[in-house]
Amino acid sequence: MRLWSGGTTRELLIAPEGSDYARRDFYIRLSTATVESEESMFTPLIGYERHLMVLEGQAHLVHQGQRSDRLSRFQTSTFDGAWQTQSFGLYRDFNLILRYGNRGYISHQHLSLRETLHLSREEALVRAIYLERGRLELVNGDIINCQDMLMVEPGDRLFLRALESSDLILATFTA
């Protein structure tokens, strides 16, 4: 966990290996954050695209001179990291940050008890599954618990079964 001006953040993935958020030498970063100040400013990330999904609470993002987004649970906002963005509200979120030239998106998937999810092969895409709530079982018997992340490399397939009602965040991006 790291502190930032509005709360805490937990880095889940940064690439390439050895890169660092503070040096701004990464291509892809996945993280969760807890916004603990009713009002805060996002760190400018020139040269990056940001994807933010609210996991708990509600957020009001004001992208100064651009637009305003009001987000509830599992709603997303995609915006230029160079924009001056002011945040209002107390919430927890999931973030995908991509250096321009890389492509990606985040989405929410709900699985009911015993429901399965099949991800087919994608040759050029990496997929990360973050388990926000619930428990999942892989076809080989491995268990994915709440707030775990599973990486699906390009060309891999995946079969998951919900051991309880589950909410997954799927981040898909170019390798």
Layout of secondary structure:
Elements: E1 2-4, E2 7-15, E3 28-35, E4 39-41, E5 48-57, E6 59-63, E7 67-71, E8 76-80, E9 85-88, E10 91-99, E11 104-111, E12 116-119, E13 125-133, E14 136-138, E15 143-144, E16 149-152, E17 158-162, E18 166-174
Antiparallel strand pairs: 1-2, 2-3, 3-10, 4-9, 5-8, 5-10, 6-7, 6-9, 11-18, 12-17, 13-16, 13-18, 14-15, 14-17
Helix content: under 10%
Proportion of strand residues: over 45%
Neighbour order of strands in the largest sheet: 1-2-3-10-5-8
Major pleated sheet? 6 strands, antiparallel
Distance between the termini: 26 Å
Order of helices and strands: EEEEEEEEEEEEEEEEEE
Number of strands: 18
Shape, per Cα inertia axes: globular
Overall average residue pLDDT: 94
> What's the alpha carbon Rg, rounded to whole Å?
16 Å
Kindly name the structural category: mainly beta
Low-confidence stretches: none
How many helical stretches? 0
Short description:
Helices cover 0% and strands 60% of the residues.
Task: Please describe what this structure looks like.
There is one protein chain. This protein is an all-beta fold. 0% of the residues lie in helices and 60% in strands. The protein is built from no helices and 18 strands. It has strands at residues 2-4, 7-15, 28-35, 39-41, 48-57, 59-63, 67-71, 76-80, 85-88, 91-99, 104-111, 116-119, 125-133, 136-138, 143-144, 149-152, 158-162, 166-174. The chain has a six-stranded antiparallel β-sheet, with no helix packed on it. The protein has a four-stranded antiparallel β-sheet with strand order 4-9-6-7, with no helix packed on it. β1 and β2 (7-15) form a beta hairpin. It is globular, with a radius of gyration of 16 Å.
